[in-house]
């Protein structure tokens, strides 16, 4: 198998990250890359044979792809690299347009865990899909193309911010005020009362003229406010990548590229990737990992391999499967040294970090991988000449967090969290090491191609 070198891989990843500002855009670009390498939709296959390249998407957000192995899935299960493509952001509310103090704003709702202050006074972009009553869709992408306007959430100047400064981090800026300026041009006319009011109707007319959508169409829209700007190299040594959405597109893309690179060879055991949605809000909904999408897709694969497929075959196959839960973790930050578990914090330039367990102080929300599977992964990484590290997410009683591992391990499969360490996790601009990004890709490649696991 021929790997990309680090420079090639990081350039391709940065290109992808700049495109995949939302889960729908990630889905579309992932589907395009899969089709370009010969993958076909599952519905195109009546039967599946070893070497077939197949994928199944759902609601333009969640996708699973696989290279069918020599051994039937019902007998040996499958290997999975599973990550998510949603990221913390602001969503427009169903009725987003409102007036305040003479200006027009888009009313926003927080999606995922954010620090509110990090979203103030920075250029923001608007991406999403509007669905008209007749079912036709309009794609909106504003803020990243040359000449585009951007959006912004204003904050008070320090000269007048004395009262604000006395409040706690969570109190000083209410969530309901995280709204972006949409239109400030005053109304035209002779009425005195209109001269101090922004032209709300002007915004509605602009949307109608530019996108052929009405204000009512926003009721059936999925519009997201995300940071404007493209990924960039960070530091004079250019060793870090600064960008929005590393969590968790850095791992999802690594899994995708690992599968694409391995797709010309038939594996012993079916190799697959999963790029899901809604992880940042609990993996809920029809496109999250608590849905039946994954097991339904495995059932569809088995049904095309077995003449007399039964439900018990699916359950047994899932128990025989294994997975690398491809999600990021925190890189130890010297500025916050008191948060790190001594000797167990991840470091930059040491490769992806495996976490035997995640969760909170008492391992709440963790799957807690078996030492037997950890040992197997250690062997796979050694054979693949992968640089990696073992880490956990900070000290006990300092917080914690989970991944999709807990929702996959419920099938009885072996699951280990293994992903790229980050600084600024969940911030509008996160930092990842190029070396760690590349080694994450090599780690997933080694796992998918190994006869172990």
Ranges with pLDDT <50 over ≥5 residues?
Answer: none
As an assembly, this protein is single chain
Tally of separate helices: 11
What is the count of β-strands?
Answer: 20
Side-by-side strand order of the widest sheet: 1-2-3-13-4-14-18-16-17
How much strand? 15-25%
| CATH topology annotation of the largest domain | Aminopeptidase
CATH superfamily of the largest domain: Zn peptidases
Topology readout:
Layout: H1 6-19, H2 23-36, E1 40-41, E2 53-58, E3 62-67, H3 73-76, E4 78-84, E5 89-100, E6 103-111, E7 124-131, E8 137-142, H4 162-165, E9 180-183, H5 200-211, E10 221-227, E11 232-234, E12 240-243, H6 246-262, E13 270-276, H7 293-303, H8 311-319, E14 322-325, E15 329-330, E16 353-355, H9 371-383, E17 389-390, H10 405-409, E18 414-419, E19 421-423, E20 430-433, H11 434-449
Parallel strand pairs: 1-2, 4-13, 4-14, 14-18, 15-19, 16-17
Antiparallel strand pairs: 2-3, 3-13, 5-6, 5-10, 6-9, 7-8, 7-10, 11-12, 12-20, 16-18, 19-20
Describe this structure as you would to a colleague.
The protein is α/β, with parallel strands linked by helices. It has 2 domains: about 5-85 and about 245-450, Zn peptidases (Aminopeptidase); about 90-225, Aminopeptidase i, Domain 2. It is built from 11 helices and 20 strands. The chain has helices spanning about 5-20, 25-35, 75, 160-165, 200-210, 245-260, 295-305, 310-320, 370-385, 405-410, 435-450, and strands at about 40, 55-60, 60-65, 80-85, 90-100, 105-110, 125-130, 135-140, 180-185, 220-225, 230-235, 240-245, 270-275, 320-325, 330, 355, 390, 415-420, 420-425, 430-435. The mean pLDDT is about 95.
């Amino acid at each position: 198998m021929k790997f990309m070198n680090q420079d090639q891989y990081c350039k391709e990843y940065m290109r992808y990250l700049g495109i995949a500002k939302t889960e729908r855009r990630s889905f579309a670009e992932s589907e395009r890359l899969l089709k370009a390498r010969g993958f076909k939709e599952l519905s195109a296959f009546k039967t599946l044979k070893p070497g077939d390249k197949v994928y199944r998407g759902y609601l333009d957000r969640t996708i699973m792809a696989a290279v069918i192995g020599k051994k039937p899935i019902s007998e040996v299960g499958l290997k999975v690299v599973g990550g998510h493509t949603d990221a913390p952001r602001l969503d427009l509310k169903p009725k987003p347009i409102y007036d305040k103090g003479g200006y027009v704003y888009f009313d926003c709702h927080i999606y995922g865990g954010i620090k509110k202050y990090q979203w103030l006074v920075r250029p923001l972009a608007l991406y999403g899909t509007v669905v008209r009553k007749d079912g036709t869709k309009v794609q909106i992408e504003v803020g990243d193309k040359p000449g585009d306007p951007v959006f912004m959430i204003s904050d008070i100047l320090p000269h007048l911010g004395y009262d604000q400064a006395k409040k706690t981090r969570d109190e000083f800026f209410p969530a309901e005020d995280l709204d972006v300026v949409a239109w400030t041009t005053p109304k035209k006319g002779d009425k005195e009362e209109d001269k101090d009011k922004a032209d709300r109707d002007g915004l509605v007319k602009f949307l109608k003229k530019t996108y052929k959508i009405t204000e009512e169409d926003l009721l059936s829209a999925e519009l997201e406010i995300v940071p404007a700007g493209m990924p960039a190299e960070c530091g004079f040594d250019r060793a870090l990548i600064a960008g929005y959405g590393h969590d968790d597109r850095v791992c999802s893309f690594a899994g995708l590229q690992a599968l694409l690179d391995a797709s010309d060879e038939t594996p012993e055991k079916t190799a697959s990737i999963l790029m899901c949605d809604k992880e940042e809000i609990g993996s809920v909904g029809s496109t999250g990992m608590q849905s039946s999408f994954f097991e339904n897709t495995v059932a569809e694969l088995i049904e095309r391999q077995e003449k007399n497929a039964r439900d018990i075959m699916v359950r047994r196959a899932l128990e025989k499967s294994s997975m690398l839960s491809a999600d990021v973790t925190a890189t130890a930050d010297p500025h916050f040294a008191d948060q790190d578990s001594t000797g167990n914090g991840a470091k930059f330039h040491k490769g992806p970090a495996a976490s035997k367990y995640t969760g909170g102080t008492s391992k709440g929300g963790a799957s807690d991988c078996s030492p037997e599977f950890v040992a197997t992964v250690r062997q796979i990484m050694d054979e693949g000449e992968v640089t990696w590290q073992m880490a956990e997410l900070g000290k006990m009683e300092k917080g914690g967090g989970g991944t999709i591992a807990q929702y996959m391990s419920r099938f009885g499969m072996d699951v280990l969290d293994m992903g790229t360490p980050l600084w600024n996790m969940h911030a509008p601009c996160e930092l990842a090491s190029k070396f760690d990004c590349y080694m994450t890709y090599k780690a997933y490649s080694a796992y998918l191609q190994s006869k172990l696991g």
